[in-house]
Write a structure and sequence with these properties.
Layout (H helix, E strand, L loop, with lengths): L7 H8 L3 E3 L3 E3 L2 E4 L4 H8 L2 H12 L2 E16 L4 E13 L5 E11 L2 H10 L8 E7 L10 E4 L17 H4 L4 E6 L10 H5 L14 E4 L3 E2 L3 H11 L2 H22 L1
Parallel strand pairs: 6-7, 7-9
Antiparallel strand pairs: 1-2, 2-11, 3-10, 4-5, 5-6, 8-9
Helix pairs in contact: 2-8
Length: 259
């Protein structure tokens, strides 16, 4: 049944359909804010419990500590049509072999491939700590259909072509482990924990106002905190004003690209 998202009472009633069922799962039918939008993504990741849960699920490591780093930025240029959102975290993780490591995590969210390429010209932070970069892409890669991609460094002897087990602090800083989430390729699935988490990015439930999604899948209880916050975002009028502005900016970019 269609819901008038501009009617607070009807919308609030619709959100109440989220209820416990089948033990540890939510049966969900709710309107949520679309985390594809920068304002929503920022609102979501400002909750450090959620940021920790999302990052830990993507990198598949236990995060002991997570703190936000003061590098949040949005690059936008009418001249070059650049639109990329960036935020950073410092983390202490416990690896699967029970080792503790301090790392930096950079999250970049982009609307097009050119955004990533041009943005890298502005970045290039020098640090002694390993960096993991997580890309949330609002476009599809041409040759990879996987919705989530893990890119690890492989050390290879350039002469013999043999793999090397040795690592060095210098070479650790030369390249970054990366994870890529292709938002347009996300489909509801419970195949893995990560696939289940990514359901909140599923764009097939997009509404007339593109900054709203209909979430109609079952979410495990551990991820309910994410869908609940996205549902609360819908009721935040200040945030909705920002989303309408962001949508207007997107339209300007699209119009300029068409020209």
């Amino acid at each position: 049944m269609a819901v008038d998202v501009n009617d607070p009472i009807a919308l609030a009633h619709h959100l109440l359909f989220a209820s416990f069922n089948r033990g540890s799962c939510y049966t969900v039918s709710m309107i949520i804010a679309n985390p594809l939008y920068d304002a929503v993504f920022k609102y979501l990741m400002e909750d450090m419990r959620i940021a920790k849960l999302i990052i830990a699920t993507i990198i598949d490591e236990e995060i002991i500590e997570l703190t936000s780093r003061p590098q949040e930025s949005t690059r936008f240029s009418h001249q070059f049509s650049i639109h990329l959102y960036r935020m950073g975290f410092a983390a202490k993780i416990k690896t699967k072999d029970d080792q503790y490591k301090n790392i930096l995590i950079e999250i970049q969210k982009a609307k097009s491939s050119q955004d990533i390429i041009r943005f890298r010209e502005y970045s290039g932070e020098q640090t002694a700590l390993p960096i993991i970069t997580i890309y949330f892409l609002g476009f599809k890669l041409k040759h990879i259909t996987a919705q989530a991609i893990k890119i690890n460094r492989h050390y290879i002897d350039a002469i013999t072509g043999e793999g090397l087990e040795q690592q060095d602090d210098f070479t650790e800083q030369l390249t970054h482990n990366s994870y890529v989430i292709q938002i347009p390729r996300v489909k509801p699935s419970h195949q893995t924990r990560l696939a289940t988490l990514l359901a909140v990015f599923d764009q097939t439930g997009i509404q007339n106002d593109h900054y709203l999604l209909n979430l109609a899948d079952s979410m495990p209880e551990e991820f309910a905190i994410i869908s609940d916050r996205l549902a609360k975002a819908v009721m935040n009028q200040t945030l909705r004003d920002q989303l309408e502005l962001e949508e207007s900016v997107e339209s300007l970019i699209e119009d300029k690209n068409i020209q």
